[in-house]
Write a structure and sequence with these properties.
By secondary structure, the protein is mainly α. The chain has one domain. Helix 1 packs across helix 3, helix 1 packs across helix 4 and helix 2 packs across helix 3. It holds the Pfam family DMT_YdcZ. InterPro entries: YdcZ.
């Protein structure tokens, strides 16, 4: 089961890269807000059908959860909007590496303090070094992208 979940997560990463690229291209023609809206509206319609036919929970229990948990919606909106905004300007790989660095950094902070009911995994020099090396990799990617753009212009 663990291997299946890892492969599923990797496939999720593949689809995010494809989505970033397609949304970036779409936003050049339709606009950033419009692209984000189309993505969420389409997703909402598809998920409505999935919930209608396969849902096993109670959608109205959303009114009973602690209100801070509803912030996840805004995080998703922010992620998609900022990705749609960034891809046309810095490219898919620089956007996705930046996203991963942000996810891992925030994940380390959340783990360190045990926020949101998680376990505490304290920050150490190895984790900090990992982030620094990823930032260095991002710098190389960004500089490489700039040089490629200048050569093609």
């Amino acid at each position: 089961m663990s291997a299946f979940i890892l492969i599923a997560a990797m496939l999720g990463g593949f689809t995010l890269s494809a989505q970033s690229s397609v949304n970036g291209a779409l936003s050049r023609k339709t606009g950033t807000y419009e692209t984000a809206f189309m993505t969420f509206a389409t997703g909402a319609m598809i998920l409505f059908l999935i919930i209608l036919f396969f849902g096993d929970g109670n959608i109205f229990s959303i009114f009973d959860v602690p209100k801070w948990q509803l912030a996840a919606v805004w995080f998703g909106v922010g992620y998609l909007f900022l990705t749609v905004l960034a891809v046309p300007k810095i490219g898919v790989i620089a956007t996705n590496v930046s996203t991963v660095i942000g996810q891992l950094t925030m994940g380390m902070i959340i783990d360190h303090f045990g926020w949101f009911g998680g376990i505490e995994i304290h920050l150490d020099w190895k984790r900090i070094l990992a982030i620094v090396l990823m930032l260095l990799a991002l710098r190389f990617i960004y500089v490489g992208n700039k040089k490629a753009q200048e050569q093609s212009a």
